[in-house]
Amino acid sequence: MAKSPTSRVDKLLSSMGYGSRNEIARMAKAGGITLDGAAIMDVAKRIPVTPDLPARLKVNGEVLDPLVGLVILLNKPLGMTCSHKEAGALVYDILPDRWRWRDPAISTIGRLDKQTSGLLLLTDDGGLLHRVISPKRHVKKTYRAKLARPLDGTEGDLFASGLLMLEGEDKPLAPAELEVVTQTEALLSVTEGRYHQVRRMFAATGNHVEELHRERLGGLLLPDGLRSGQWKVLSENEIALILQ
Ligand code: URA
After folding, report:
1. Ligand 1 atom nearest 209 alpha carbon
2. What pLDDT score was predicted for residue 87?
3. Which residue ranges in the chain fall short of pLDDT 70?
4. Which domains are seen in the chain, by residue range?
5. Counting C-beta atoms within 10 Å of the first and last residue's C-beta, which end of the chain has fewer, N or C?
6. Would the pTM count as exceeding 0.90?
7. Cβ contact 118:124 at 8 Å
8. Ligand 1 mutation target, pool 111, 113, 169, most atoms within 8 A of CB
9. Are 139 and 218 in contact (CB under 8 A)?
10. CB of residue 197 inside a 6 A radius of ligand 1
């Protein structure tokens, strides 16, 4: 069996945003860091970084945050931006404060517009991020769109044709699937992630998207019980659903 990687306690905790190495050394001296109930005084000590570590290593009495390789599913509220640095409310503001200091950093997997809500993934796993957004993978994303005007019945064929050219672009969109819910509401599944893609697809048919909500990404559904602004860390099985 491969041996678990080890890490110095101070390096591990500072890479998880708990403070500078000096701050962590001070916390340890005050008895604030314990492994299996025993205080760690020497933060230069190397410990095995095993999946059960978050349950065993406590910081000020609290279980450790998820280790590197985490994937977060957020039900993104309207009005928040998927950016690390723009002005205004950012999706990262919803996560615990110290997570801003994690290294590797947590980033959104793709983006949703400020005025789009629903399923948004965030991760510190750069490999996973690139696999999910890679156009070669054709990961399906399903959006519920509420429209200003009734559908005219031609949209499904147009979106499925693989011929629709968005304004200002020189390559047609890949085929997309439309499921009509009511005259002014539809589910649209796309495999690309072009700028404002869903809004621009309906605009190309003379319509206007009034509300947009992402419900599905790959094999992962936005859980019913996860309310707007709530998030959860995905299990390994749930992560596997993304690229299914
Ligand atoms: N298409 C859009 O127009 N906006 C989004 O946020 C996602 C897809």
Report:
1. 3
2. 92
3. 1-2
4. 6-63 (3.10.290.10), 71-134+227-234 (3.30.70.580), 141-217 (3.30.70.1560)
5. N
6. yes
7. no
8. 113
9. yes
10. yes
